[in-house]
Structures
1.
Amino acid sequence: MNVLYLLVPVALLLAAVGVAGFLWAARNGQFDDVETPALRMLIDDDRDAPPPRETRPTNGRPTPP
């Protein structure tokens, strides 16, 4: 029973930290745009990638076609 005198205030403190973290995130705009991050994975990034480099063998012979 004595452990409840410790656990109840600790639980209330953790709940207060969670609420404070949520309020801080809401005030700083963390939840303003909830749709764009989910759609960002559908954007095709291949056109921005540089073309692959040609590799040449180190022995001086041309590569067969």
2.
Amino acid sequence: MIIEKDIIIIGAGPIGIACALECKKRHWNYVVIEKGALTNSLFNYPRNMTFFSTSEKLEIDDIPFISNNPKPNRDEALEYYRRVATSNKLHINLYETVLAIKKEDERFSISTSKSNYISKKVIICTGFYDIPKLLDIPGEHLPKVTHYYKEAHNYALQNVVVIGASNSAVDAALEIWRKGGHVTMVVRGENIGERVKYWVRPDIVNRIEEGSIKAYFNSEVKKIDEHAVDIQTPDGLITLDNDYVVALTGYLPNFEILKHSGITISEDDRKIPTYNPETMESNIKGLYLAGVICGGNETHKWFIENSRIHAKMIANHIGKSTN
């Protein structure tokens, strides 16, 4: 059976929810398709993660986000977006993976792991948290290696290497150290990342300076074994005893879904998809992009705070084109 819709929204993160709200207000026949849980990227964030933004900057459609703290945490964000979705009775299909998007004449055919759809318009807002940047080194696929960090308890009393110097790596290093883990950071650059949250950066710098957390800068992990890691440092190759590796080296958007749908992507390292910044329509008429996916590999460019407006921009353009 083929399901017909006016609009298919791919991705049920905050921006996908914002797009659904715009569709509902205009009485369009839509559905959101999400391969994981509601706000799947936020769900996979560390349990104790605190946002850089304040709650009002994470709000969508002027629906108040009340937080107990100046900056909300992961659980508060999950509760907020869940309430927005459920109280507004948004049409969202979870745990359904989009397999292909193909434009045929003036409509799109979308096949998923559960159904087949036809729609007039498609909005892709899939984020970037599902595909980690791999190190491509021996031992990376050992069970002791993870590219996601959830909580610190299981790392207590263990020798843990944290790779990276972004917010996620710094948060993991500090929390694991405070829960009794023996933490070593391996950083390709010469210092902790400049975009690390301003209230956290002094903490990690001080822990490194006092020797509580060991850090190797201008260094790279070259090999991971069952009980050790090899690190190339400015002073040469060293081997450390090791129980776990937390490789928080960043994540990539799903470029394949863009390419297969016909969206062109810049050939430089940024891999920016083609879209009109005034309407968010891609080079494929009727196919729109919203949120982090618009930044390609520049995953720090778009986030909830500054891409909330994409939903209204897209809805306004669709509305004009259908009048």
